[in-house]
Design a protein that fits this description.
The protein contains 13 helices and 15 strands. By secondary structure, it is of the alpha/beta class. Helix 7 (187-196) packs across helix 8 (214-221). Strands 9-8-7-10-13-15-14 form a seven-stranded mixed sheet. Strands 3-6-5-4 form a four-stranded mixed sheet. The chain has a two-stranded antiparallel ribbon with strand order 1-2. The two termini are 33 Å apart. Helices cover 27% and strands 23% of the residues. A hairpin with a 4-residue loop joins strand 14 (376-385) and strand 15. It has two domains: 3-167, VC0802-like, CATH 3.30.2130.30; 169-433, Rossmann fold (3-Layer(aba) Sandwich), CATH 3.40.50.
């Protein structure tokens, strides 16, 4: 299932709005989907959060051609259309097409057909500031060629109700962000993750792999108080190598807090700690988060590390006043996700959500690679392809059972039925895939299977 439908369903669940999504409308690549909602108020509330949905219309007619749509408009109850089409209301009609470009004259012809004498439209046309805006939408599919069909597959006509929040993507774009890192999550996906986590006013949200805090910015936008941890001391203190091109050194005021301050969310900032996400005992019992939203390191651009246990490390003698840093060891991806689920089971409130990314080597992927925990239930699993062989899955889990540890039985633990990285790290799989694709491109005839096995 695509992000767009998952986001819509999650927002509607958060709002408590019953709805029916006609997902079959999206077949053949159509971008238009009918959603049955209880009221216009619910529709506007949905569009106040979604960043993936462009616009929402009150549907007045649909069919395979304009004639069918016109007939449906004429059959509408007069009391439902008259407030928007009477002589006292100005209007405009916008013609939009998908997969095909229409000339201005073709658009005008369609508008003239809809407003011909005897139609429901009695008001004055106002193209700049109308009281009501109507849209004629046409979808053309490709008939096995690079050219679209001559006739539309589907035609819709509706009254514009509300736009989505796509402008927020530009508002929070990383290009304008004060503090970024190599793996900063882009604004669109950050807000989608916050919507899947159902973040709302006064929630308490944690990112245990916080980096530059992109996910905290998105969560604070929806009204949450935010906190995070990260093991990278140099990054959090603006001493790491700059991530922007031509930037020689980081500014001393670069920080997660400065990002939140940039957008007016400083009052939502709790704190960010330099800490190892695998050390759960640093959190006091009874601490509960409403959501955990995170993107763990994959070990490609940023290494995955954790602090070595004292018993496993070589303690070296130093001067008493010398500054000391804890020793680190490689953190296996499988262990990262098991620790993450164990943490969520302990510190999420019941009903709280964990949203995270799981990197995948597609030829080896199976549903059994998804980490599991007795207290958590997978609600959604959506793929973002990154190449022909590499992708990542956006996983949303809900805490359905309270975590109990009364000392009389073994603690419930996370598990991975089939560990995707037990025999080979994601970094090894990733670069093997890159080399295989490069060889296939250079050779012009190598198959993926041959490259993978070599």
């Amino acid at each position: 299932m695509g992000y767009d439908r998952l986001e819509i369903k999650s927002i509607l669940s958060l709002l408590g709005c019953p709805a029916v999504l006609k997902e079959n409308d999206l077949k053949d690549g159509s971008p238009f989907m009918e959603v049955q909602l209880s009221s216009e108020t619910a529709a506007k509330a949905l569009m106040q959060r979604t960043v993936l949905s462009k616009r929402l219309y009150e549907l007045w007619g649909e069919g395979s051609n304009l004639l069918e749509v016109k007939e449906q408009i004429k059959q509408l109850p007069k009391d439902s259309v008259e407030p928007y089409t009477n002589e006292c209301s100005s209007f405009r009609i916008v013609v939009e097409t998908f997969n095909k470009k229409l000339s201005t004259s073709d658009k005008i012809k369609r508008i003239e057909q809809l407003t011909e004498p005897g139609s429901v439209f009695c008001g004055q046309i106002n193209l700049s500031q109308p009281d009501n805006s109507f849209h004629l939408l046409e979808f053309y599919h490709f008939e096995g060629t690079s050219q679209p069909a001559n006739k539309p597959s589907k035609v819709y006509f509706g009254r514009w109700v509300s736009d989505g929040q796509r402008d927020r993507i530009r508002q929070y774009h990383l290009q304008n962000r004060h503090f970024i890192a190599n793996t900063s999550m882009d604004a669109c996906l950050s807000m989608v993750m916050a919507n899947l986590a159902q973040v709302k006013d006064n929630d308490f949200v944690l990112d245990p792999f916080v980096g530059s805090g992109s996910l905290l910015v998105a969560s604070a936008h929806y009204g949450a108080y935010v906190a995070g941890t990260d093991i990278d001391y140099l990054l959090l203190h603006a001493r790491a190598k700059p991530s922007r091109a031509k930037q020689k050194a980081r500014s001393r005021d670069e920080s997660v807090r400065s990002n939140l301050k940039q957008y007016g969310f400083e009052s939502k900032y709790i704190d960010v700690l330099v800490a190892d996400a695998s050390r759960h005992k640093m959190w006091r019992e009874g601490c509960h988060f409403d959501a955990i939203v995170t993107d763990p390191p994959y070990g490609i651009r940023e290494s995955a590390a954790k602090i070595v246990n004292v018993k496993d490390s070589e303690v070296k003698s130093t001067d008493e006043c010398a500054q000391r840093y804890p020793q680190k060891a490689q953190y296996q991806l499988g262990d990262i996700f098991k620790d993450l689920l164990n943490f969520a089971a302990k510190f999420l409130r019941r009903g709280g959500r964990l949203v995270y990314w799981l990197p995948i080597y597609k030829p080896d992927y199976h549903e059994s690679n998804i980490p599991q925990h007795p207290c958590l239930e997978v609600e959604s699993n959506c793929e973002q392809p990154l190449s022909t062989t590499i992708s990542r899955r956006l996983i949303t889990m809900v805490k359905t059972e309270d975590y109990t540890n009364n000392g009389e039985q073994e603690e419930p633990q996370a598990s991975i039925p089939v560990d995707h990285y037990e025999c080979e790290t994601f970094r090894q799989k990733y670069f093997r895939a890159v080399e295989s694709e490069a060889s296939a491109t250079k050779g012009g005839g190598s198959t993926r299977e041959e490259s993978v096995d070599s």
